[in-house]
Amino acid sequence: MTPRTLDRPMAVVSRRQFMTGAAGLTFAFAIDRCDIAAAAVSGDGANGAILSPWVSIARNGVISIMSPAAETGQGSMTSLPLILAEELDAEWDQVRIVPAPVIEKIYGNPAFGGAMFTAGSTAVSAYFTPLRTFGAQVRRVLLDNVSRKWNVPIEELTTEPSTVIHEKSGRRLSYGEIAAFAQIPATAPEIKPAQLKKTSEFRLIGRDVVRVELPKKVNGTAAYSIDLQIPGMIYGTVLESPVEGSTPEQFDEANVKAIEGVIATVRLPYGIGVLAETPWAAFDGKAAIEQTVTWNRTGKAWDFDSDKGMEAFAAAAGDLSVPVTTDWFKQGDVEDALGRAATVIEAEYQCDYAYHAQMEPLNAIAAVSPSGDAAEIWCGTQGLTMAIDTVARALGIPHEKIKLHYTLLGGSFGRRGQYDDDYIVHAALLSKAAGRPVKMIWTREDDVHNGRLRPQTAHYLRAGLDASGKIIAWHQRLAGDRVMPFTDPVRYELSGHKDLLLMLGVELRSYDIANQYCGLIYRDTGVRTSSLRGIGYTANKFVTEAFLDEIARHRRVDPVQLRLDLLKSTPRGRPVVERVAQMANWGAKRPEGHALGFAFIDYSTTLLGGVAEISVDRGSGDIKVHNFWCTIDCGIPVQPDNVVAQTEGSIIYGLGLALFERISIKDGAVQQSNFYDYQVMRMSDLPEIHIEIVATDNHPTGAGQMGTPLVAPAINNAFAALTGKRLRETPMTPDRVKKALG
Amino acid sequence: MPDTFHIHVNAAEHTVAADGDTPLLYVLRNDLGLNGPKFGCGLAQCGACTAIVGEEAVRTCVFPLSAIGDAPVVTLEGLGSADKPHPVQKAFIAEQAAQCGYCINGMIMTAKALLDRNPHPTRAEIRQALAGNLCRCGTHLRIVRAIEAAAKGAAP
Question: Among A377, A381, A469, A721, which one is most buried in terms of CB atoms within 10 A?
């Protein structure tokens, strides 16, 4: 990836790993994929100015550490610098966190080929070892300097937070004092993995600190892009075509321009923009356009109806004569095993489209230069690198001419950070047309109508059991709407045409099932889709864990015991299962009308167990969740309370998806509009949620969305335990409940 | 033609020229530069825009300017400062009761109005009072804990 500077002139890549800064010590390292790189320091060298260090130590002891990830409430802005501070042995109160500029070569996420992309709950996992190593290297340089100054062997020196100590002589020097005289070596000291701290030596990792940006969110001074004002700025919004790929034909422009505050309308390839003096005038203008506009029907999704589409998906999945598009996953010989099986059980499931509903309606500010050859962008996005790529393509200008100022995000959940982030493109094109800065804001209705949805899927499964009841074959055919070719064609190419966002989670990696197969029946409906919290796992683990429950019921074995039996080759999963069963008092008698359901999932090597306690109102069809117990093993919990917070959050998100969140499509268009017809979980609906971390010394893995897929199967299995009936769709809406209960 | 309104916001008087049916949110954000109240749905469906008018937590995205009258308006900015946070704000920090933070204005303002009229609410009363305030990150449980702590005066 080409390095680029956005807040400063073009970076110069130096051969030195360390450099001196004017205000104290400045250290800079680069992450080159997963390796600790050879040197890549951005600096102009000539005057020693600090450009892009990871760490700098000022003489007053303040330690500035860069934060390379977007902050959308998941806490990376705190936990990533904290990992570096741990090995540096920095006093946390003296640490200042600075959002890193967009320079991929230095700050890129190793999980995404070095792009600055905050997604997939990868940040802590991917940056963990590089950041620890950087911290240890900086600490070593400080120790070397003190060793030389005092003429004592480095082995006699130790550190306490922000202080080097020579115990024999009782001498101490603070990091700030060292910064005043330290010499910086030409090459970084080598730190081997074994030289990093042991888990028992951690002072910061595993101890909760206040999230750095949280106080500002509580006192109203945190700035989201929707809050920013740029000099000379006007406002804009865009009415997008209801169907991707269609363009506007006609509309009554005079009506729009008659609205007070409307400045102009702008024809765009995919919609019509309005420029105005206030956001509200722009919204009124858009509403007027909606009254008269006509669209051509070139978009693919016209005529598509999600209910009929689902029937067709299900028919294709369940009809073995319909060829699969690809063999997604094969292990052993499933056909042979099905042939040998004493019993074959089959089942069908369906999962609907769903919407992100981040609380901040999508918006961005663009200031395109009058000649159109440069742009500044202010926005919240998970994809810092992609935002620049997107604008460069939209305006036909080089990356170097684009300056990105990224802000806090008012929620995201996979919606922001796509190949052609629509809301950012809108802002750029409107500003280009206006010749001045434009803040583009969508209404909630736009945000829903232009939603890039969790795809709809239909699943057909067969399991083969031998005479003892052991599962010897697991066969699935999944018919699903495409995601990655639409949302991120570049990564789709890079992945070798693997639609990971749709399909992850279908493989049963933890379970001892020798013969597995999943065929993908790939469908392109033309509906806008993208990653949504939990991605493919949400549908795919629902299906797996509900079907396993059917098998347990068929065999009359305890569902928890079935999972424990299947986890023989994944011993790490057993404590997760056992502990959550204990927490829920699994097996104990419940109040009349209540029942428990169990689920286990492995999500990118994070392991979770979940138990839901539900009751059902047979009159209304409402499922009431009373309790949800959850265990999570995400390796070393860097910020344990935040792991719990993220897990609570992802479970609550999963409750909405499991119970009522549903987008329907008619003639290609999203039918819902706002929170009155797209309900999300409310404070008054919540169960008690009980979470325990099963802490292990394993490398940390993700926690930001892993609870989401756990919820639907646990509820579904509780419903079966309570009623003897199986719900075969998510969301498990009252209508569907009543239908199942007859 | 716009009318002139004199409104009291966060203990200061402001003169605003706007139509009487202009929603208060527009005036707070665009005319007064108060960004605590957030635009979330525009239809009083999510609560992100909540401010206190008189003694009531109102949805400023649908609350007309002309309905304010003499009632004082308090926004999140007027509740406390970075140095002197309001007890409810202190409790939100102590409980780490914010994730993306976009809904938090509404949660805090609704909680403040609740505690003013009912200083010792039950958990069920808190949940009911906040049922119209949507949060998408799933911070609900911590928000309830923070309000309980604030009610007990337990925030440090």
Answer: A381
